[in-house]
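Quick check before the chapter quiz. The format below is the same one you will see on the exam, so make sure you can read both the input and the output lines.
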Amino acid sequence: MDMAICSHTSLSTSNPYISPRIVNYTANRKSFSFSSSSFKFKKPFFGCTPPLCFSTKASFSLGSRIPLQKSIKCSVSQAETTTDKRAQLTRRNDVRNIAIVAHVDHGKTTLVDAMLKQAKVFRDNQFVQERIMDSNDLERERGITILSKNTSITFNDTKINIIDTPGHSDFGGEVERILNMVEGVLLVVDSVEGPMPQTRFVLKKALEFGHAVIVVVNKIDRPSARPDYVVNSTFELFIELNASDEQCDFQVIYASGIKGKAGLSPENLADDLGPLFESILRCIPGPRIDRDGALQMLATNIEYDEHKGRIAIGRLHAGILCRGMDVRICTSEDECRFGRVRELFVYEKFSRVPAEIVEAGDICAVCGIDDIQIGETIADKSSGKPLPSIQVEEPTVKMAFSINTSPFVGREGKYVTSRNIRDRLYRELERNLAMKVEDGETADTFIVSGRGTLHITILIENMRREGYEFMVGPPKVINKKVNDKLLEPYEISTVEVREEYMGPVVELLGKRRGQMFDMQGVGSEGTVLLKYKIPTRGLLGLRNAILTASRGTAILHTIFDGYGSWAGDITTRDQGSLVAFEDGTSTSYALASSQERGHLFIGPGVDVYKGQVVGIHQRPGDLSLNVCKKKAATNVRSNKEQTVVLDTPLDYSLDDCIEYIQEDELVEVTPKSIRMCKNPKFAKKSGGRS
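Here is the expected output.
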C-alpha cells in the first residue's frame, strides 16, 4: 500500500524525528513506501500533533515537493464525515462521553479515583476507599474490574460521562458493548510494559467504531519508566490496526494515577490532572445528535434493583426522553412492543440522580420496562425505528454444568435442582452477551460457553455465593470445521518473567505447541517479555505450571487471536490423582502414610467420600488410598505413641481446581466447599494419563 508523508520539515534523514530506516525507495514505482514495523521516532512527540501524519489515499513522486500543512490542535476532534445522514446531525458541546480502556493492572480504576477526587465529587472530610469503582466484592478480592460502571464529573461547565471498563480479555464483551455509548476513549498504557495484548484488543474495537483516542502513559513515576518506547510502540500499534490519519494524530498525556498528576511531558507534570481534563474537552468530540428527531436509545447495559426492577442504561441518540412517556421497545423492524418510562435517572458525580427530561447525547438509566434486554431500542411510540443491535465476538471455551451427584449433596447449598441451575444460567444471558448456554446431553446438564476460563469461573463463583450447589466439568475449546479442515482457537500469550527462570518457561510453552515470535528486555529490572502464539488448549492449566516453573514470579497475559489449523496432541498434566477409597473422616494415622504417595489436598478430620480426589499422585496414573483408616485399638502397650508429622495440605482455589481437573474429573461447587472427584460416567482408567 502506498503511503504519503505530510511533514512540517524537510524529508532529509537528518530530521531528528525520523529514523533513516523509515524511507524505502521503490525504484519501479517511484514512490515512497513505509514499513510500520520499522517506524520509530528518535525523539518523542508531545501534544496533539506528532511531526508526521500518514495517508493511505495518495502517493507522491520522488521529484515533487510536499506542501506544508497548517498546524492544528487535535485533528480527531475536527474530523467530520460528510454523509447525507450526518449532515442532519448537530454536535452537542456541553457533554463528553468517554470510556477508559486498558490492559489489566495498567491503572484505569486508580486513575478514575483521582479524577473523581479532583473534580470535587467527594467532600474534603469524606472517607473514600481505594478503587471506589470496583464496588463488587469479587472485584475487590481479585483486584480486577469485572463489570463496567458509569459515573460523571463536571469540568469547566462541561459534563464528562466516564465509563470504567474491565481490563481482562475474558471480559472483552463488556468493552464491546460500552463502546456503543461513547465518542472517545482514554487508552491507558503502563509506562514500562507498553501496549499489551488487551491494549491491542480494546484499541482495535475503538478504532473500528471511529472513536477519538487519547493515550495516557500511566505510572510515569516508576523507576524503570520508558515513555519514549511506550509512545513509539503505541503509534506502531495504531498503524498496524489501520487507524485513520485523524486517529493517528492522537494526544499523549503522561500521568501518575496514584499521585493524581498529569502533564504533556514526562519531566514536567502539573500538580493535578488539569492537562488530562483539558485534553478530554479539546480532543474528544461531543456527541452527534438529532435533537428534533424521533426518540432513539440503545439499551447497552442492564442493572437490577430490588425496588425498581430492571434498569436499562444507554445513550440517548435522538429526540428527548421524559419521565412517564409511552415508548416503543424494538428488537427489529417487525418485532416491537410498548411500554412506559416509570422513572428516569442521569449520572451526576458518583450516583444516579432522578431527572424529568433527558436530551439526546446524554447517558441515562430508565426504569419501568420489566422485560427490556441488552441490544433493544427504546424508540418513539408512533414513528420509532430500532438502532443496529450490539455485536460481540464468539466464545472460545465451554464447560459442562450439572447437578451435584456426590453423597454430600444438599448439605450446604440452597438451590440444588436442575431447574434452579437452568433458571440462573439463562438469567445470566440477559446481561452477559458474550456468554452462551445450551442444553446438554441429559436433562440435568448444561453447556456454558464463554471468552475464557476466567469468564466462566466468575459466573461459578457468583452462583456459589448465591447459594447454588452444582458440578462443573473441565474446560474445553470450541473447534470449527471449515472445508472439512479442523480449526482450533489460538491466542497471543505474553509472559513477563525474570531472566533466570526464562529457560523452564520457554520449555513449558514449547511442550504446549507455543511458537515464540518476539522476545525483549523490559526496563532495568532484569525482566524478559516473551510473546507466543499458542493454541487455547495449551493454555488450559498453564498458569499454575508457569508459576511453579518461575517460583511464583511470572505474569501471564493472553488475548484471543483467531482460528488456525489443529496443532496436534498436547499433554497438559503428567501426574495422576490420589483418590479416596471409601466414605468416612480422614485421620492423621492414614494421612501419614498417604502423604508419601504425593501432595494431599486435605488434612485430618475432613469428611470424604469414595471417588473424591484427595491429592496429586507423584507418578502418572490414579491411585486409590484409604485416608480414613484408624489405628487398631489393642491392649498391647509395647511401644510409646509416636508423634505424627503431617505436611501442610495444598489449598486449591476454584480457579486452581478447574485448571487441574482432567477429562474424567469434576469440580463439586458448594457455598462453603470446593471439592474434586472422579466422574462416575467414565470407566476406570488403568496406567498413565495424558
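If your answer matched, good. DSSP finds 16 helices and 42 strands in the chain.
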